[in-house]
């Protein structure tokens, strides 16, 4: 049920693809603004959601830490509902700005709390698979605007979208369990036991071992601050790994491509209608999301990230080459009109197989409970700062570097991330939170010993 909130978040991302053509229309029956938007208004509608997402992790992370994960998740649904209702009846551009900013705040909070909550309610053996279910519902959220947006008015489209967070709020309020990790940390042991009994469908005695494990894990933890991360070699390494992967996720161009998918197909001039092409890619996004949950606890986080990045590198290089031939040469691209849609489908499959959710999964796994909310909020905010910059300047990148250069830039970022993952990303498959911390401390100690030996030999 909590994954419904993920759907609301990613609807916010791909919302622009079918809405931009309507807002550029001169037809007042299609465009509620009565006149076409400008290029600057286009850019602000696109990037304000990521600007809101930069700020979102901070208040919602605080709420989750202070009042519980359940209250935090419920509070995220409210701005989603207000955002869609505002844009459903907006008659001026500033209401669209407000709706996009509010939706971004909620989306940023969701990307912080959802991986944390799912990791904390899951068992060690299936935590990766459970975390990957987010990918399925994120993909549903990305698909809905392509499936509904081109064929509905802006008002009814947004009214329907508002029903998703509303349904989540009502269902989760009534039957959603609180995280047992939060409850143990708050010294609410009886409630934690009841939560585990509900989550595992077991009796009190049968969850005692897991409850004792959680209590032992949290026993020596004190309230953490962001500065605590930089004092510990193990946590510094975890922070850098998650940060690099999260930034790489955005530098792969996903948000920019999602925002401007229909426009990209229009620019490519393919034989297939741009809205149909976008719908096909959105459907590929949905289908591909179902595979990763079954692979992440078998293949592992590391290998999926590596293959994901190499796949995106190939796909983005291919579409970059297509635009180079189209824009900079006299080569006839009609015989290869299929390359843009093929490349973007391959790109989406590759994205969903690893880099889409593995960074968020690792963010929820690599940090102890006392700093999890501050690390998650900081990493999510930096993620959306990167996304804001990429989406805000996507059109400027096309003007300066050319469309081919922009896609090649994204491809280079994916290749660099694949190499980084081979060298530095740890494998957390099947490990408990305590085992992961022991692994990080052991690795950091080993690296420090190697560094000290190297310094000694130099002397």
Automatic annotation (TrEMBL):
It is a multi-pass membrane protein. InterPro entries: MFS_dom, MFS_sugar_transport-like, MFS_trans_sf, MFS_Trehalose_Transporter, Sugar/inositol_transpt, Sugar_transporter_CS. The keyword Protein biosynthesis does not apply. Keywords: Cell membrane, Glycoprotein, Membrane, Transmembrane, Transmembrane helix, Transport. It is found in: Cell membrane. Its main location: membrane. It comes from the Eukaryota. Residues 1-429 form the Major facilitator superfamily (MFS) profile domain. GO terms for cellular component: plasma membrane. GO terms for molecular function: transmembrane transporter activity. The chain crosses the membrane at residues 43-64, 71-90, 96-118, 130-148, 154-175, 238-261, 276-296, 303-325, 337-362, 374-394, 406-425. Belongs to the major facilitator superfamily. Sugar transporter (TC 2.A.1.1) family. Trehalose transporter subfamily. This is Major facilitator superfamily (MFS) profile domain-containing protein. It comes from Rhamnusium bicolor.
């Amino acid at each position: 049920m909590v994954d419904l909130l993920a759907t609301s978040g990613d609807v916010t991302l791909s919302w622009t693809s079918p809405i931009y053509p309507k807002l550029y229309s001169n037809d007042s029956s299609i465009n509620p603004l009565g006149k076409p938007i400008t290029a600057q208004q286009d850019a602000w509608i696109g990037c304000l959601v990521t600007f809101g997402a930069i700020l979102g992790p901070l208040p919602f992370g605080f709420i989750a830490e202070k009042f519980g994960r359940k209250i935090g998740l419920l509070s995220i649904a409210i701005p989603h509902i207000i955002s869609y209702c505002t844009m459903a009846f907006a008659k001026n551009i500033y209401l669209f700005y407000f709706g996009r900013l509010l939706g971004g705040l909620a989306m940023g909070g969701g990307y912080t709390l959802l991986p944390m909550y799912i990791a904390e309610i899951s068992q060690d053996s299936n935590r990766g698979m459970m975390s990957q279910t987010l990918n399925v519902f994120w993909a549903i959220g990305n698909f809905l605007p392509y499936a509904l947006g081109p064929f509905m008015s802006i008002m009814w489209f947004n009214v329907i979208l508002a029903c998703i967070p509303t349904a989540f709020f009502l269902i989760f309020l009534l039957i959603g369990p609180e995280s047992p990790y939060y409850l143990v940390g708050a010294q609410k042991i009886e409630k934690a036991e009841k939560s585990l009994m509900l989550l595992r469908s077991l009796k009190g005695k049968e969850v005692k071992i897991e409850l004792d494990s959680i209590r032992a894990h949290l026993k020596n933890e004190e309230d953490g601050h962001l500065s605590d991360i930089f004092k510990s070699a193990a946590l510094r390494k975890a922070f850098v790994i998650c940060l690099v992967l999260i930034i790489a996720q955005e530098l792969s161009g996903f948000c920019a491509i999602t925002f401007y998918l229909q426009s990209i197909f229009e620019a490519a001039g393919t034989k297939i209608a741009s809205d149909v092409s976008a719908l096909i890619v959105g459907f590929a996004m949905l289908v591909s999301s179902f595979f990763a949950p079954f692979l992440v606890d078998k293949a592992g986080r590391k290998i999926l990230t590596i293959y994901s990045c190499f796949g995106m590198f190939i796909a983005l290089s291919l579409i970059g080459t297509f635009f180079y031939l189209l824009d900079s040469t006299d080569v006839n691209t009609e015989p290869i009109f299929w390359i843009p849609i093929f490349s973007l489908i391959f790109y989406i499959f590759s994205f969903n197989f690893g880099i889409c959710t593995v960074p968020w999964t690792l963010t929820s796994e690599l940090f102890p409970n006392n700093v999890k909310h501050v690390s998650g909020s900081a990493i999510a905010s930096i993620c959306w700062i990167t996304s804001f910059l990429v989406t805000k300047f996507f059109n400027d990148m096309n003007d300066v570097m050319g469309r081919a250069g922009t896609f090649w830039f994204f491809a280079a970022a994916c290749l660099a991330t694949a190499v980084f993952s081979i060298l530095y990303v740890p494998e957390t498959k099947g490990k408990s939170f305590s085992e992961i911390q022991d692994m990080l401390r052991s690795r950091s100690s080993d690296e420090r010993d190697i560094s000290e030996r190297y310094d000694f030999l130099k002397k």
